[in-house]
Amino acid sequence: xxAQLEKGGSTPExxxxxxVDIEATEATLAEEGVDADWLISQRWVxxxxxxxxxxxxxxxxxxxxxxxxxxxxxxxxxxxxxxxxYIVPERGxxxxxxxxxxxxxxxxxxxxxxxxxxxxEPIVVTGQIRVNLTQKEMLVVDGPVLxxxxxxxxxxxxxxxxxxxxxxxxxxxxxxVLMGRIKATGEATxxx
Length: 192
Prior knowledge:
The protein is of the alpha+beta class. The chain has helices at 2-7, 12-31, 36-55, 167-185, and strands spanning 65-75, 83-88, 106-110, 121-140, 143-160.
């Protein structure tokens, strides 16, 4: 109500009613022993705590060997020359939609035996995870993005599933399989 009063823009009668409501509310709170100004100031403290809790890394996982599934985003090599990437929980994150919170993005330290073949290739990685907040700006599909990750994973093993096909690519592949069957047998069935 105070913000509404400060903003103005209402009729004098409405602004007067807001002032009356503020005074009545403050009086009721004071009778109950509540300091309205202190209570309002606490919303910023609560908001800050909620923001930290929503992005903080879970320390219980520091040093644990884990397997994570998600979608890989290739990254430039690290300063020491190591191959790097990120794993995010949903395809398209960091490009067409904002990055996930830092506690949902993991910076991958890859071995030289595997590199991502494409952006958003579905993978499962296994290795030791460390709580290690990193911030790196890198160029992704739609432009530069600040990649904030709360974890780094030293990758020991990568399981890939091949690139995701668009519906058009999948239809073309089904048509190719069907044509191969027709050529091989001279006939095809509708259920193909």
